[in-house]
């Protein structure tokens, strides 16, 4: 790929929280050029600044309502599309975009689970059957050839949990089931208003206990069953996860430290930190910060990401960079900052 060439791209769901972050990242990216930001067909065309006034004078993209009649001409105008849509909308649209020759980075859960039955149980609709397998794009562990037509961008909680767990999985006792407790900011639920995310209702609370759709996704990503308890926190953005695992006899702190450093020493967007991370050190950034501590045979991991960036838009751009042969952190470091 000629590094000077600008890659034309489009964002679907550009009025939503992760879509707006994608718009801003791509608007500032040195190698991507954003041709379109689409909204649902229910809206009129309007500037993104009508929804996100903080972008005034910085990004004046006019958002277009999506209509299927636009599809035939789209491949002449763009090469890469990012879908920041509800799961079922992605499931419907992605196959059409692929058939039209576009490369799709899908932020939804429509194509993440490899088992169609499990997908149906979690999402309540059939996963479309595609000719090519869909890579699950946990960016630090994914090599893309540039021939894939669809990449499933991992979920926000699964990104945090798997980046912390994967390096230490070989050290776990045979009967250990990792326990993942995680708190997310309200932007994790998206921009659409709902009673449970309204200002007066939000109060730190567990939800989806032992039945959240990210439990099988984390298990698939780390290759082992996990216990997963998400919590909704009364803050805007960020995920903080605390993870507990039991270590085999003989595994010591140096082994754990070496495993993390060997895994991430050449990965700029994962930082192994020496004090438990605060959300404020990752919010507005594409970083994942991981802290670890041994307590006897227990290993405690504390991991923080921005759900809308490393957990969504920044990871999608990171994957697109890798797909096109750019350095993973291109356009993300130093980042343009956050929108929402
Ligand atoms: N929020 C987060 O932290 C994360 C979200 N994700 C995933 O990213 C996707 C988007 O999430 P999020 O940004 O939170 O969602 P939002 O609710 O904030 O935004 C949804 C977007 O999708 C558009 N849309 C809704 N229905 C349709 C449709 N039928 N056809 C076309 N466009 C449609 C909306 O347009 P309009 O404004 O016109 O209604 C809006 O632009 C979801 O799949 C989510 O699971 C992944 C990781 C983290
Ligand atoms: C706080 C909150 O509601 N978070 C969302 C997860 C974030 C999200 O959008 O899910 P994906 O990462 O699978 O796309 C939830 O629990 O459903």
Largest sheet: 7 strands, mixed
Radius of gyration of CA atoms, rounded to a whole number: 20 Å
Tally the structural domains.
2
Beta-strand portion reads 15-25%
CATH level-1 class of the largest domain: Alpha Beta
**Count of helical regions:** 9
- Could you name the CATH topology of the largest domain? Rossmann fold
Low-confidence stretches: none
CATH H-level homologous superfamily name of the largest domain: NAD(P)-binding Rossmann-like Domain
Strand order of the largest sheet: 3-4-2-1-5-6-7
* Helix-strand makeup class: alpha/beta
Globally, the shape reads globular
Q: Report how far the terminal alpha carbons are from each other.
A: 33 Å
Bound molecules: NADPH dihydro-nicotinamide-adenine-dinucleotide phosphate, N-acetyl-L-glutamyl 5-phosphate
SSE pattern, N- to C-terminal? EHEEHEHEHEHEHEEHEEHEEEH
Q: Into which percent range does the helicity of residues fall?
A: 25-40%
Layout of helices and strands:
Blueprint: E1 7-12, H1 17-27, E2 32-39, E3 46-47, H2 48-51, E4 62-65, H3 74-77, E5 80-83, H4 87-99, E6 103-106, H5 116-123, E7 150-152, H6 156-165, E8 179-184, E9 205-206, H7 214-222, E10 227-232, E11 239-246, H8 253-264, E12 270-272, E13 288-295, E14 298-305, H9 309-324
Parallel strand pairs: 1-2, 1-5, 2-4, 5-6, 6-7, 8-10, 12-13
Antiparallel strand pairs: 3-4, 8-11, 9-10, 11-14, 13-14
Helix pairs in contact: 1-9, 6-7
The protein binds NADPH dihydro-nicotinamide-adenine-dinucleotide phosphate and N-acetyl-L-glutamyl 5-phosphate.
């Amino acid at each position: 790929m000629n590094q000077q060439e600008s890659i034309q791209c489009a964002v679907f769901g550009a009025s939503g929280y992760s879509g707006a972050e994608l718009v801003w990242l791509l608007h500032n990216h040195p190698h991507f050029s954003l041709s379109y930001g689409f909204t649902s067909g229910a809206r009129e065309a309007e500037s993104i600044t009508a929804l996100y006034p903080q972008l005034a004078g910085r990004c004046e993209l006019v958002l277009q309502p999506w209509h299927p009649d636009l599809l035939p001409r789209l491949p002449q105008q763009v090469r890469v599309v990012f879908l920041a849509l509800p799961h079922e909308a992605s499931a419907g649209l992605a196959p059409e975009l692929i058939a039209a020759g576009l490369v799709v980075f899908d932020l939804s859960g429509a194509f993440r689970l490899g088992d169609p039955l499990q997908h149906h149980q979690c999402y309540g609709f059939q996963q479309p059957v595609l000719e090519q397998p869909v890579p699950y794009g946990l960016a630090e562990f994914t090599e893309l050839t540039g021939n894939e037509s669809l990449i499933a961008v991992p979920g926000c909680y699964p990104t945090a949990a798997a980046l912390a767990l994967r390096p230490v999985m070989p050290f776990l006792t045979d009967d250990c089931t990792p326990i993942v407790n995680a708190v997310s900011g309200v932007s994790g639920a998206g921009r659409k208003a709902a009673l449970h995310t309204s200002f007066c209702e939000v109060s730190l609370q567990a939800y989806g206990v032992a039945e959240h759709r990210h439990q099988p996704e984390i298990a698939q990503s780390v290759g082992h069953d996990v216990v997963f308890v998400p919590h909704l926190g009364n803050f805007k953005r960020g995920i903080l996860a605390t993870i507990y695992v039991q270590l085999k006899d003989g595994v010591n702190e140096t082994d754990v430290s070496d495993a993390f450093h060997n895994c991430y020493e050449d990965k700029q967007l994962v930082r192994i930190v020496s004090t438990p991370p605060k959300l404020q050190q990752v919010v507005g950034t594409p970083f994942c910060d991981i802290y670890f501590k041994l307590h006897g045979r227990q290993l405690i991991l504390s991991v923080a990401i921005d759900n809308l960036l490393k957990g969504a838009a920044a990871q999608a751009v990171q994957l697109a960079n890798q797909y096109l042969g750019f350095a993973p952190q291109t356009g993300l470091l130093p980042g343009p900052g956050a929108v929402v």
